[in-house]
Amino acid sequence: MATKSRPDETASGISRRSVLAALGHLGIASLLAGCAVPRREATWRLPGEGVVVHRGDRDFETWRRAMPWQDWVAARTPECIARPADRGQLREALLHARQQGLRVAIKSGGHNVSEAFLREGGMLVDLHHFNGVEVDAATASATVEPALWGRDLSLHLSEAGLAFPVAHCATVPMGGYLLGGGVGINTDHWGIGCHGVTGAEVMLADGTTVDAGSPGHEDLLWAVRGAGTGFFGVVTRYKLRCAPLPRDVRENVFVFPAARVAEVVQWLEGLVEDGMPDTEVMMLLANSPGPAPGAPPVTLCIARVVLFCDSESASRERLARVLAGPMASQAVFSETMKAATIDSLMIGSVDAARGLGFGRSHVNTIWTARTAEAATAAAEMVSRAPSPKTHAVISLRKHKALPEDACFSALDRGFVGCYGVWDKASDDAVNIAWSEASREALQPFASGNYINELDAFRRPDLLKRAFSAEAFARLQALRKRYDPQGLFHDFPGLS
Ligand SMILES: Cc1cc2nc3c(=O)[nH]c(=O)nc-3n(C[C@H](O)[C@H](O)[C@H](O)COP(=O)(O)OP(=O)(O)OC[C@H]3O[C@@H](n4cnc5c(N)ncnc54)[C@H](O)[C@@H]3O)c2cc1C
After folding, report:
1. Which CATH number does the domain housing residue 287 bear?
2. Is residue 331 part of a domain?
3. Residue 56 Rama label (left phi>0; alpha psi -120 to 50; beta)
4. Is the CB of 359 inside a 6 Å radius of any atom of ligand 1?
5. 452 Cα: distance to centroid of ligand 1 (angstroms)
6. If you measure from the C-alpha of residue 397 to the centroid of ligand 1, how many angstroms do you get, rounded to a whole number?
7. Does 117 sit in the ligand 1 pocket, CB within 6 Å?
8. Ligand 1 centre distance from Cα of residue 110 (Å)
9. 362 within domain boundaries
10. C-alpha pair distances (Å), 420 with each of 19, 27, 258, 435
11. Considering the domain boundaries, does residue 426 fall inside one?
């Protein structure tokens, strides 16, 4: 498969768009677990480009710290980290783990909010080298490996006149994103990411590779579509169904004081219900510096409507529907018809100064049918956030039908998330306390949780709210069938 190098790390610092894209992470102050003397065979290595480091190796801690995407690193230490160069080495790693009695955790891009891939003991398999992509314009499909960034996929697809609902942040890889669902660009119309997964190659606990969805493995494809951190195999490839690339993309932004958040939500809900095709409706709640030195920051509510059309005239026609009614004209600031591309919607999220990351972060999100109330609670939380980078994102959708053949089974019209983002380790405690308070503030309005943005180490009870009861039970039964000896870790909080 063709591989794509990372984009140059030249993008700007935190901007409006980068804040919007800064969907979050996890952080608390961590005292590193002491490097215990390895109990198992610590000389096992992989040849060539494959890497294995064991606890006690001189550079082990450097490798461990390099696993998460963010600066905060969970205080959990695997016994060894293996970075296989190819499928043969991946198989060798799994068989070695079985033979040594090591439980296995998988990492594609390390963006998981709870750093679920970092477990105490066992083997961490890092799929860093699995970042290939192939696009077939004729069938409007793509085959991707798990460490491929959403942005890299998007660039390849654009060349072929195609698009896919990749994450809003450029660096989010396809592996964990698709496995847990994928609430990405124009998701209300292009679908939840995992709904576009038409096939997958999975390496099972015994080292065999199977095609999920092939006869006898239909259940496996069902699980690939949404099991998230509860999956019981290694996804080495996804096959995706893509959408035609819109030829005229326009960003429209309307800024209001946070006090009007409920009205803004109602306005945007009306637009969504109106059934405008290919329109993404989101809101950002963020703090702006006060109007004078020493003045307290002002919390703003920024409505962002992105139109995915095929011509400027179609975009203008659709914008007229957005501008109809009283709300748009009451914005304290607005900018309309700003030309955009899928890439420009994403790339602002890359912050070279921070080494591509956003420092330290922790996130809590909910699905809700009570978006105005949840957004009001989020605005209140943002107004007393300890870090100026902390923000909330609200996304609205019309379509909430779930395909029957997907494990992904929690979805509602509103998606509300509080994203704590800060820089210094010394601020971990206060920011984590804020994040935990924001989770409690949002939860009363939740109809469900999103497995990709759920810290189940802290709240394992919320796992069942990320799935229907039927899907959760079916997933656990499939785990017993496909991984009877429990090689792979279960959900955080359950193993
Ligand atoms: C900056 C940022 C922006 C984000 N934006 C969005 C967004 O717009 N929309 C959205 O829906 N989500 C978003 N997310 C959340 C994101 O979808 C999840 O963090 C997702 O888990 C990241 O994928 P990953 O490959 O980095 O997973 P990792 O962190 O590498 O892995 C997480 C877990 O997934 C499982 N896993 C991962 N890869 C595999 C594999 N190949 N085979 C088997 N199991 C695997 C493992 O259980 C692992 O512990 C964002 C996160 C961040 C940090």
Report:
1. 3.40.462.20
2. yes
3. left
4. no
5. 6
6. 22
7. yes
8. 7
9. yes
10. 11, 9, 18, 6
11. yes
Atom number in ligand 1 closest to CA 185: 8
Q: Domain count of the chain? A: 1
Give 105 Cα–ligand 1 centroid separation in angstroms: 13
Residue 134 lies in a domain: no
Neighbours of 161 (CB within 10 A): 13
Q: Starting at the edge strand that comes first in sequence, how are the strands of the sheet with 197-203 ordered?
A: 2-3, 132-136, 141-144, 234-241, 197-203, 209-212
Q: Which of 20, 26, 90, 179 to mutate to test the pocket of ligand 1 (most atoms within 8 A of CB)?
A: 179
Query: How far apart are alpha carbons 230 and 224 in whole angstroms?
Result: 10
Residue ranges making up the domain that contains 435: 248-461
345 neighbors 184 (Cβ within 8 angstroms): no
Taking the centre of ligand 1 as the mean of its atom positions, its distance from the CA of residue 262, in whole angstroms, is 31
Atom of ligand 1 nearest to the CA of 22: 1
* Ligand 1 centre distance from Cα of residue 117 (Å): 10
Give nearest CA residue, ligand 1 atom 19.
Answer: 112
Per residue of the chain (495 residues), give pLDDT as tens: 654 433 332 232 223 333 333 322 222 222 222 333 345 668 899 988 999 999 999 999 999 999 999 999 999 999 999 999 999 999 999 999 999 999 999 999 999 999 999 999 999 999 999 999 999 999 999 999 999 999 999 999 999 999 999 999 989 999 999 999 999 999 999 999 999 999 999 999 999 999 999 999 999 999 999 999 999 999 999 999 999 999 999 999 999 999 999 999 999 999 999 888 889 999 999 999 888 888 888 999 999 999 999 999 999 999 999 999 889 999 999 999 999 999 998 866 555 555 555 689 999 999 999 999 999 999 999 999 999 999 999 999 998 888 779 999 999 999 999 999 999 999 999 999 999 999 999 999 999 999 999 999 999 999 999 999 999 999 999 999 999 999 999 999 887
Beta bridge partners of 279: 307
